[in-house]
Amino acid sequence: MITQTMYAIRNNKTGFYMPARDSSHKGATHAPFIDPNEGVPRLFKQHHHARHSLDWWVRGKYTTWVYEDGKFDDRTTPMPDREKPDYEIVQITLTIP
After folding, report:
1. Span 24-76, pLDDT tens digits
2. Where are any strands of DSSP class E within the chain?
3. Which of 67, 85, 65, 86 is nearest to 75 (CA)?
4. In total, how many domains does the chain have?
5. Considering the entire predicted model, what is its pTM?
6. Most buried of 47, 66, 70, 78, CB within 10 angstroms?
7. Are 61 and 76 in contact (CB under 8 A)?
């Protein structure tokens, strides 16, 4: 049996989690948090990876455009309802038989 410690980001007001990444969202900063009974939370192998993702989340929705000539533009759209004290990084123990 293998036991691993992982980390997830939870909204303290709703109890919802940052969702696992999939192709239906533009990226982590665009995806709405999910009820853990209805979806899979995004798991991070290290605490600082979760902290970095949370830092980007509270900054707002990050979007980047890459042009044919290789140049790119990026923009962060502030989301005033995202305040860092409303979120926490929680430890999750994953047990694999």
Report:
1. 556 778 889 999 999 999 999 999 999 999 999 999 998 887 888 888 888 88
2. 2-11, 61-66, 72-77, 87-96
3. 65
4. 1
5. 0.85
6. 47
7. yes
